[in-house]
Amino acid sequence: MHDIIDTFPAYLSYWNKFRSESIEDQIDGWRRTYMVRWPELLQKQLDDYDTEGLNWREIAREQVFPYLDQRQPAIQAAYENLLNILRPTLSKASLVLDYSGDLVSVIYVGIGLGAGWTSTYDGRPAILLGLENIAECGWIEKDALIGLIAHEFGHLVHYHRREEANLPLGNGPWWQLYSEGFAMRSEHLVMGNESWHMREREGEEDWLEWCRANRPWLAAEFLRRVDASEPVRPFFGSWFDLQGYRQTGYYLGHELIRVLEADLTMGEIALLAEDDPLLAEGVVKLAERGAN
To answer: Which residue of 4, 104, 121, 145 has the lowest C-beta tally within 10 Å?
Structure first.
């Protein structure tokens, strides 16, 4: 069963009231007038920042609310496209990735945690779709949104397969590279081509070409950062970059999965441990190979 929790009408009601207020009042209104109706969704966002040791109000004040007004047309357009493509995309993804379990999708405007993320909601597997980040990334058109949804569905299937096998989820840089790569490869399987929804970002039209040309460097830089215990956030975060290009870790992770597919099925790859030596060996191979 697939349900959609659509908070956007409530967001519009809130925003029409607070759009001319100060940033601080907008943030308070977001929490007390809008998000208060979905306490679990609110708490998930606050907890996620707390886990990272970040101040959610500071992030909201600096990264999100100063841009909300100018992004309203993009938010509205993305929302309308989402309503048209969400159910058919998830139906197709369920068939391609062989998933018949429960699912809920939540459409909301949040505080910058991501255009899409996989979690649970009300005890059910969930895909959370943050319109504020979708608009920021420029993933407004239907093709980009279909890719985003397929990507998050890939995460959901990955977690489901591990739960079935009584295996835990991981954390840390190797898990992030591996899990994002698995979701990226799943997106391509659902789309039937290498869609790369993140290449739509304005100012990075040559994103895929740059990633391919710099694949050995990306792999070597990831290995260097892990060995030096440096953060790998510039590979993944939408507010960080490597040499001016953001979210390159999704490309590198996909390439790692393609290396693993030479010997393993996607079902087998889904069950790897985050410290499996195959992951590091795969990235070493990418660092040693020539550019794509």
So the answer is: 4
SS3 content of the chain, % helix, strand, coil (to 5): 60, 10, 30
Going edge to edge, which strands form the sheet with 116-121?
Answer: 2-6, 103-108, 124-130, 116-121
Q: Which amino acid is at 30?
A: W
Q: Which residues pair with 124 in a beta bridge?
A: 121
Residue 159's pLDDT band (boundaries 50, 70, 90)?
very high
Single out the residue of 92, 96, 89, 97 nearest to residue 116, CA to CA. Answer: 89
The answer, yes or no, to whether residue 52 has pLDDT greater than 60, is yes
**Could you tell me the pLDDT band of residue 290, with boundaries at 50, 70 and 90?**
low
d(CA 180, CA 90): 18
- Of the candidates 77, 79, 72, which has an alpha carbon nearest to the alpha carbon of residue 16? 72
Amino acid occupying residue 66: P
Residues contacting 51, CB < 8 A, separation 6+? none
Taking the C-alpha atoms of residue 214 and residue 150, their distance in angstroms, rounded to an integer, is: 26
- Overall average pLDDT of the 157-168 stretch: 96
Say yes or no to pLDDT of 201 above 60: no
**At 136, which helix (H) or strand (E)?**
helix 131-137
3-state secondary structure of 117: strand
Asked whether the beta carbons of 134 and 108 are under 8 A apart, the reply is: no
Which amino acid type is present at position 143?
A: D
Of 252, 266, 182, give the one whose Cα is nearest residue 224: 252
Domain ranges of the chain: 1-169, 170-292
Cα separation, 279 vs 263, in Å, equals 13
